[in-house]
Write a structure and sequence with these properties.
globular; single chain; 23 strands; 25 helices; four-stranded mixed β-sheet; five-stranded mixed β-sheet; alpha+beta
């Protein structure tokens, strides 16, 4: 008998809790749920989504809140709800199946499985009528054509296991020529009209190419070629002036539904904003572009103010408010007039491109800022008034789940933004987040994936969690010199090496630990997507640790970093658009990576500040007295002056004592 209960009320996922009042007898993914399906001899209906997903909400309202649909689901299936952000391992396995079967993926993801978890039919969103027809067809097939179901599920499972074998390990070290090839291939895909990169003939939807922007900046720094920098500037400018960027409160939406960045899919994700914050901070540090500096400050404030909770950062803001997508953000000329009065409304409408016909639904417009305002005082007055009015509208829901990996990305981004803006508050926010994560998400000597409201979840951390957090902690160590950041980071890397590395293929990594729950397939996806892959993230963390860790561990990390990066050569050669973070790590690697050790009193050292400002992306910068860190072993001030030691790999220059000399040594402008 199916349990006459919905079991999601105690979940630590806001997405699952959104479904706790459904008449569907939802369960969380668990061995017990699979056992129940076997005992009842019914298929599993697996539904995967996330809290900020618009079409997930639509399917919930149409089908999962409907008594008729729920009755059919409860009678014929064991129904399992999964938050893809809490269990990316489950999502990865069945998304691969969905793409293999249908040619495309997306959320909500709807899969029908045998009781042992093998998929035999997959899809995404279904309208109510179609969904009822599908439920009936699947039940009939299960009853009358079981042999075909078993054969199909066996075949799909075999294909998924073949896909999961991934890239082989090994290979020679990455060479500059491969980076040059990858950059050239990426530049060919630029949208020269609107910025960004073309995804299809229509040029839309268009996603922020966060990791690629960072890689292109590093390529420019390495080669001096202006083309990668120009592409970054066109893309970053277009996004910052478009509707994908919140022109009133800061922060980026998930993607643009059009090629010109005008109309966003309005959900705001922590990971997007963290990755873009890092890229814009690098752009600002390299060029001092005022637009970049403004976007950094506003986006950092959005992350801290709108996503902050208990010192950490929550996952997302919903695309919808009061059941309507974008309701909080869009404006009509009449609404501007109501808030601002006639004169300011006309000025604001022209400035923000709010028209009578509109750019969104029902004659409303998404705010854009194609040109800087001619009157900054008036702009601040108008923006303040519009924000105040916006706060009185229905607000998007917030997914309060804290995800380790995304917080790790935010730690790195805020720390680097603090350097770009010379703003200690941002570094303090990064440190507070790191302390809170360490205190809450490390349980019984292992890292957990998520928490909610101060309650840590049961889901084990995956590779990306260990890697992103380790990189964040290593970034904090470089800026503060505080040893606990380094020791915790190396502890995370040691766990990753023990439990996630593929011992049969040097340089290859699994996304789940060897002692985690065994799924039908052990995920091992090396491609970068909306976020960098766990493998490319661990490559970055290992590369940093190889030059920061104590000598007795440094060689271990260096060897693992080199093997990991070498395994990505096929991605950079054939699929560079799917290897943006790999390319960023590779660009740093082929320069050494560069290490800058400044012998100084780190408080108030102008040379150390210059080193942090001038350092290329991926460089390692430390400062302090002689012997205060590995890179400062036997390296002291020179004739009473602060001294910077620049190394590339194991080759080091003579020390320099001025910012201009350091700039010359790095090949960078002062």
């Amino acid at each position: 008998m199916s349990p006459a209960v919905n079991a999601l009320a105690r979940a630590t996922s806001p997405y699952l809790r959104q479904h706790a009042d459904n008449p569907v007898h939802w369960q969380e993914w668990s061995p017990a749920a699979l056992v129940e399906a076997a005992e009842r001899d019914v298929p599993i209906l697996l539904s995967v989504g996330y809290a900020a997903c618009h079409w997930c909400h639509v399917m919930a309202h149409e089908s999962f809140e409907d008594e008729t649909v729920a009755a059919v689901m409860n009678e014929g299936f064991v129904n399992i709800k999964v938050d893809r952000e809490e269990r990316p391992d489950i999502d990865a396995v069945y998304m691969n199946a969905t793409v293999a079967l249908t040619g495309q993926g997306g959320w909500p993801m709807t899969c029908f499985l045998t009781p042992d978890g093998r998929p035999f039919f997959c899809g995404t969103y279904y309208p109510k009528a179609n969904f009822l027809q599908l439920l009936a067809a699947v039940s009939e097939t299960w009853r009358t054509r079981r042999a075909e179901v078993e054969e199909t599920s066996d075949h799909i499972a075999g294909e998924l296991r073949t896909m999961a074998s991934g890239l082989p390990g090994g290979g020679p070290p990455i060479q500059p020529a491969l980076c040059d090839h990858a950059v050239a291939a990426v530049l060919q895909d630029e949208d020269p009209v609107h910025g960004g990169f073309l995804t299809n003939q229509a040029g839309a939807p268009k996603f922020p190419p966060s990791a690629l922007l960072e890689a292109l900046l590093r390529s420019h720094e390495r080669t001096g070629d202006v083309m990668p920098l120009e592409v970054v500037e066109r893309t970053c400018t277009a996004m910052a002036r478009g509707g994908i960027y919140d022109q009133l409160a800061g922060g980026f939406a998930r993607y643009s539904v059009d090629a010109a960045w005008v109309v966003p899919h309005f959900e705001k994700m922590l990971y997007d904003n963290a990755l873009l914050l890092r890229a814009y901070a690098h752009w600002a540090r390299r060029t001092s572009n005022p637009l970049a500096r403004r976007v950094i400050g506003e986006t950092a404030r959005f992350v801290i103010d709108d996503l902050g909770a208990d010192g950490m950062f929550t996952s997302s803001l919903d695309a919808d408010a009061d059941g309507r997508e974008g309701l909080t953000y869009v404006w009509t000329p009449a609404q501007l007039h109501e808030v601002l009065g006639a004169d300011d409304a006309r000025w604001a409408a022209e400035l923000f491109r709010v028209t009578d016909s509109g750019t969104f639904e029902h004659g409303s417009s998404v705010l854009q800022l194609p040109n800087d305002p001619d009157d900054l005082d008036r702009f601040e007055r108008v923006r303040t008034a519009l924000l105040a009015a916006r706060f009185n509208r229905p607000q998007p829901g917030r997914d309060d789940k804290v995800v380790t990996a995304w917080n790790g990305l935010a730690i790195t981004a805020l720390a680097e933004a603090s350097v770009a803006l010379d703003e200690p508050e941002l570094l303090y926010a990064a440190m507070q987040c790191a302390r809170s994560l360490i205190d809450l998400h490390i349980v019984d000597g292992r890292l957990r994936r998520t928490s909610l409201g101060g309650q840590v979840g049961d889901s084990a951390a995956i590779l990306e969690d260990h890697a992103a957090l380790a990189t964040g902690l290593l970034t904090l160590y470089q800026l503060t010199g505080e040893e606990p950041w380094l020791s915790t980071a190396t502890w995370l890397l040691d766990i990753a090496l023990e439990h996630f590395a593929d011992t049969a293929n040097a340089g290859r990594w699994f996304d789940t630990a060897d002692d985690a729950e065994a799924l039908m397939v052990r995920p091992a996806d090396p491609l970068d997507g909306a976020t960098p892959s766990g493998a490319s993230l661990i490559a970055e963390a290992l590369q940093l640790a190889a030059h920061l860790a104590p000598a007795h561990r440094a060689d271990v990390y260096a060897s693992a970093a080199e093997a990991t990066l070498a395994s990505a050569a096929p991605i950079l050669a054939r699929l560079p658009r799917s290897g943006g973070h790999w390319l960023a790590v590779a660009e740093a690697a082929v320069r050494g990576p560069i290490q800058i050790a400044v012998a100084c009193d780190p408080v108030g050292s102008e040379l150390l500040a210059a080193a942090r400002r001038l350092a290329p992306g991926g460089a390692i910068v430390v400062g302090g007295p002689v012997n205060s860190s590995e890179l400062l072993t036997d390296r002291d001030r020179v004739a009473g002056a602060d001294a910077a030691y620049v190394c590339r790999g194991r080759a080091c220059d003579l020390p320099v004592t001025t910012a201009s000399e350091l700039a010359a040594a790095l090949g960078a402008p002062v």
